[in-house]
Structures are given as structure tokens and as C-alpha cells.
């Protein structure tokens, strides 16, 4: 499990669970991760209908931001979002994405 070792090095307080032995151990569990992925799946199928692998990371980042800021009132969440949007340059990966055919 080399990739998990790399994550552990970056996120020192991350717990690790061997699911063949338990689903919760030493205060660590996967409930939040499983909940996030369930919400992401519902967002993709319900709101966006389809997301290609090319853009999945951006949709997941959007879902993570929404999850992290879900307790903010809409006004408090929209003001910094609009400011960051206006200050950001055009992303070439997104410019005209609806006009390209994804195979």
C-alpha cells in the first residue's frame, strides 16, 4: 500500500483502518469520507447528470468547498466566492468546455 504511506507522510494525524479487521479503530473511521463520496455521486448524477474523468477533480473540489462551508449563510459564502472568481484568470481547461466533444 505505497500510496497510503505517501498520504500518511503528508497528513500526519490521519488514521488508518484495516477493513478486514474493523470499520473503526482508535477513534478513526471512514464515515466522513464515505459521506462525502456519496454526496459527490448524488451531485454528479442528480445535478450535473454526467462528469467526465477529465473534470472530476474540479467537481470534487467544488463539492469539498460546499461541504466545508455548508453552515455559512448564502450571503457570507457568495461574497468571497464572487471576489475570488473576478480576481482569477480565465482557466483554459474550462474555457469552451461545453463546445468540445468528449469521447
Give the topology, please.
Elements: H1 2-10, E1 24-25, E2 28-29, H2 31-48, H3 56-68, H4 74-87
Antiparallel strand pairs: 1-2
Helix pairs in contact: 2-3
Describe this protein's structure.
With 103 residues, the chain is mainly alpha-helical. The chain has a domain at 2-72. Helices cover 52% and strands 4% of the residues. Strands 1-2 form a two-stranded antiparallel ribbon. Helix 2 (31-48) packs across helix 3. The longest helix has 18 residues, at 31-48. It is extended. The mean pLDDT is 79.
> What is the first-to-last residue Cα distance?
32 Å
Helix-strand string: HEEHHH
Biggest sheet overview: 2 strands, antiparallel
- Please tell me the overall pLDDT: 79
Count of discrete alpha- or pi-helical segments spanning 4 or more residues: 4
Percent of residues in β-strands? under 5%
Low-pLDDT residue intervals, each spanning 5 or more residues:
none
Shape: extended
Secondary structural class:
mainly alpha
Placed side by side, the strands forming the largest sheet appear as: 1-2
Concise structural overview:
With 103 residues, the protein is mainly α. 52% of the residues lie in helices and 4% in strands. It has a domain at 2-72.
Amino acid at each position: 500500500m505505497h500510496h497510503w504511506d505517501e498520504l500518511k507522510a503528508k497528513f500526519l494525524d490521519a488514521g488508518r483502518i484495516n477493513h478486514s479487521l474493523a470499520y473503526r479503530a482508535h477513534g478513526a473511521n471512514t464515515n466522513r469520507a464515505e459521506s462525502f463520496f456519496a454526496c459527490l455521486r448524488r451531485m454528479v448524477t442528480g445535478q450535473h447528470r454526467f462528469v467526465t474523468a477529465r473534470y472530476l477533480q474540479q467537481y470534487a473540489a467544488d463539492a469539498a468547498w460546499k461541504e466545508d462551508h455548508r453552515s455559512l449563510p448564502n450571503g457570507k459564502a457568495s461574497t468571497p466566492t464572487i471576489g475570488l472568481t473576478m480576481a482569477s484568470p480565465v482557466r483554459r481547461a474550462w474555457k469552451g468546455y461545453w463546445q468540445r466533444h468528449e469521447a
